[in-house]
Design brief:
This is ABC transporter permease. Keywords: Membrane, Transmembrane, Transmembrane helix. It comes from Paenibacillus dokdonensis. Pfam families: EcsB. This protein is mainly alpha-helical and about 425 residues long. The protein has 2 domains: about 250 residues, no CATH class; about 140 residues, no CATH class. Helices cover about 75% and strands about 0% of the residues. The protein contains 15 helices and no strands. Helix 2 packs across helix 5 and helix 11 packs across helix 14. The N and C termini lie far apart (about 70 Å).
Length: about 425
């Protein structure tokens, strides 16, 4: 009994309870990182060379000529990037489900924990944004020739805007849900983000106004803290939001290992009537059509295909010589074909598909046909980007479809020769 009696005095004030929870939160993050690599030396092997290389590259941005592609960037890209960086963040109040039994009865303790959690969240967000701002600073000073006054005012304006944006999102999420939450995001999140970009551009020549704006936004953020501490009836929503914020890193780690549970639907969005992909009724084409449907209907695989296409588009749009761009183009086609072959192997080894007696030659033909069909949209799109950005307009109009056809026929055949170690 004496042990239990003394245990009640472990936290004599809200500050001690907050420190305990913050320490527990840091331990949770460390445990997630340890789940990726059991030995901390693995992180050191990655971190130390990364810091040395990153430091050398950052030093080069200040002392050496900037990359050629930076000369083609408009100034608008700077506030847009800062706005996107500022939008990544949230409020962590460090409240727990068990607080409903004791802490909620003592409002002074609850407000003390929430206030310290709010200040911790704002400080963490400020450090994150300041680090990203330092990475962009060489381009701001050397490429766009801005003075130190503008750089300082823009930094403080961005930090104050981020605090207000964090509190706006938190208050909306704590009090609403569903379509109402999305509707309130328009006036209180999306429009302020647009106004931030506009103000950064308009007051570029008068940075002192950005400084005044930072002061006003900082005062608004303090007012929002006061509003939040007086808010009632949102405790369970606060707990859910805190749980989501605390498990963000865990979700990110597990997203690469565990698929998100798929929602059960009566009908799929694509191929709703389940008609055959190919008109022919041969076994190889039926098997290829089934694999195409399986990949397109799977949310994770469909998303990965579209993400790869988006990244490839951005890479091919970079202002690089046409020879290098052509080599990158071929490499992207090879990577996608390799991934499609891996998906084909997984599909063929599925428990249901393996029950059917597919002959080896039919399986081989079906795999090549499925890979070619799935490669074709990507090949047409990337061929168009390659030619329209690198050669004459009429030559690009005439040549991008034949180029895609050649890629779609040749690359799967060549990759099949290198992947013969896979059993068909």
């Amino acid at each position: 009994m004496s042990g239990r009696k003394n245990e009640g005095y472990l936290f004599p004030n809200p500050a001690s309870l907050f420190r305990r929870r913050l320490k527990s939160h840091v331990k949770e993050l460390a445990a997630v990182l340890r789940s990726v690599a059991d030995d901390w030396t693995v992180f050191l092997y990655v971190l130390i060379p990364g810091l040395l290389l990153g430091g050398r590259l950052y030093y080069g941005l200040w002392k050496e000529p900037l990359p050629d592609w930076s000369g083609q960037l408009p100034f608008t890209i700077m506030p847009v990037l800062l706005m996107l960086i500022a939008s990544i963040g949230g409020i962590l109040l460090l409240v727990r489900e068990g607080d409903v039994l004791f802490v909620v009865q003592r409002q002074a303790w609850l407000r003390g924990i929430m206030l310290r959690g709010s200040l911790y969240s704002m400080a963490s967000a400020a450090i994150k944004t300041a680090v990203c701002y330092l990475l962009l600073l060489p381009f701001l000073i050397r490429q766009f020739h801005e003075d130190s006054l503008f750089a300082v005012c823009l930094l403080f304006f961005t930090l104050a805007f981020e605090w207000v944006l964090m509190w706006s999102k938190h208050l909306i999420r704590a009090q609403t849900g569903g379509w109402r939450r999305g509707l309130l995001y328009i006036p209180f999140v999306i429009i302020p983000a647009i106004l931030y970009v506009i103000c950064s551009l308009v007051f570029r020549a008068h940075p002192i106004f950005l400084g005044f704006g930072a002061i006003i936004l900082a005062a608004v953020s303090l007012l929002l803290i006061k509003v939040r501490l007086r808010l009632r009836g949102t405790f369970m929503n606060d707990v859910q939001e805190d749980l989501a914020k605390r498990t963000n890193l865990t979700s990110l780690v597990l997203s690469q290992a565990v698929d998100k549970p798929r929602r059960i639907r009566r009908k799929t969005w694509l191929f709703r009537r389940s008609r055959p992909v190919f008109r022919s009724v041969t076994a190889s084409k039926r098997m290829a059509g089934a694999m195409i449907k399986a990949l397109v209907r799977h949310p994770g695989q469909r998303k990965l295909y579209l993400q790869f296409a988006a990244v490839s588009t951005m890479v091919l749009l970079l202002p690089i010589p046409i020879g290098i761009k052509a080599m990158v183009f071929v490499a992207l086609e090879v990577l996608l074909v390799y991934w499609l072959f891996l998906q084909w192997f997984n599909f063929r080894e599925d428990a249901f598909v393996s029950l059917l007696p597919w002959p080896d030659n039919e399986s081989l033909q079906a795999g090549i046909l499925a890979v070619r069909t799935l490669l074709l949209p990507f090949a047409v799109w990337t061929s168009a980007i390659l030619l329209f950005t690198g050669v004459n307009l009429w030559l690009a109009i005439i040549g991008f479809i034949p180029l895609a056809a050649v890629i779609g026929w040749t690359v799967p055949q060549v990759m099949r020769l290198f992947m013969l170690n896979k059993e068909y």
